[in-house]
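Table S2 (continued). Query chain:
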Amino acid sequence: MGEPSKARCSWKNDSLGRKSLNSFNGLKTAFFMETAIARETACAFLLTALAIYAGKGNFWLAFRVFLLSLVPMVIELINTSLELLIDSHVGTDFNEDVKRTKDMLSASVLLALVISYGAVLALIVPNWK
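Corresponding output:
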């Protein structure tokens, strides 16, 4: 294996603005392509609104709830990316190893949802008045 050409790796040296644009394009693509991302986005805004209501406008409570509600989206983005990579390189035909891999990826999303939303509830419920 030789050195990768500079043309192939030029994206690594892009400006912060270009890298940010790429990230926002990835979020937009995921939002419209993956319904789980759209649902988790809706949940993030709903939970943040509940935190604002429960905390009577407590900014820091709402901020913590918002950040915690982003965790499942991070794991979902990783899950979706890996599933796309697996499907494009291995194929979509049934394969027991691929099934186990995708099941474990799905389990990581489930755990992120339980942990994150559980922590959100632990923050909101004591502030409910």
